[in-house]
Amino acid sequence: MTFSLVNHGAAQAYVVALCQQFGLTLTERASGWHLTFADDALVLRHSDLPKQGDILVDFASGAASYRRLHGGGKNEAIAKACGLNKKRDLSVLDVTAGLGRDAFVLASLGAKVTLVERNPVVAALLHDGLRRALQHKELNWLNERMQLCYASATDALGAQAPVDVVYLDPMFPPRDKTALVKKEMRAFHDVVGSDTDADALLAPALQLAQKRVVVKRPGYADFLAQQAPTLSVTGKNNRFDVYVIAAI
What we know:
Blueprint: E1 3-6, H1 12-22, E2 24-27, E3 33-38, E4 41-46, H2 62-70, H3 77-82, E5 91-94, H4 101-108, E6 112-117, H5 120-133, H6 142-145, E7 146-150, H7 153-159, E8 163-168, H8 183-191, H9 202-208, E9 209-218, E10 231-234, E11 238-244
Parallel strand pairs: 1-2, 1-3, 5-6, 5-8, 6-7, 8-9
Antiparallel strand pairs: 3-4, 9-11, 10-11
Catalytic activity: guanosine(1516) in 16S rRNA + S-adenosyl-L-methionine = N(2)-methylguanosine(1516) in 16S rRNA + S-adenosyl-L-homocysteine + H(+)
Protein name: Ribosomal RNA small subunit methyltransferase J
Main location: cytoplasm
């Protein structure tokens, strides 16, 4: 399945390169979900849902910047789960990168993170978010600590060199199906779909990781692949199931 990109103001060479890299179709006008540019940023937009709002990757401002500057740092649940409260320079393979928010937190704490994303739309958004982030001096470390890999999680787990930590955050259905799903989750479910193969990722993740595998889950969710972890670290809205392989 191909997705449309409408160019409004971006350099044509860059747009063509995006289409070639991620298999997008360049059009003058698109309906439904499509990619376009707004204020030099690649955004995901729905032509018939003006109240939906644009979705983009922004590491330099907004929630990502606030969390980097004022979050819990090494005391965050995700940092403890991945072992970054004990050691900075860990290599992390985030095989379900999404919009890269967790990967950015891990990288800001010193980890070297490879972001794996298989959906072309989300991968393109990540690519553009990394491009824009590098224009900010305070994020000059980002190019060394965050690398994008456009591939399926299964392929990445089979091809990557061993890493300290494999991080999994598969999409999970909302608990209350009658409640309105957040706008961003609505877009993800429409464009990306569900991670129906998530259980199958645990075994290869355990083979690849040298130190631990960390699985992010809603507090009410079952263990991935029905396999109990070594321990769980509870966050504000989620828990992190940790499968310890070796000490950090």
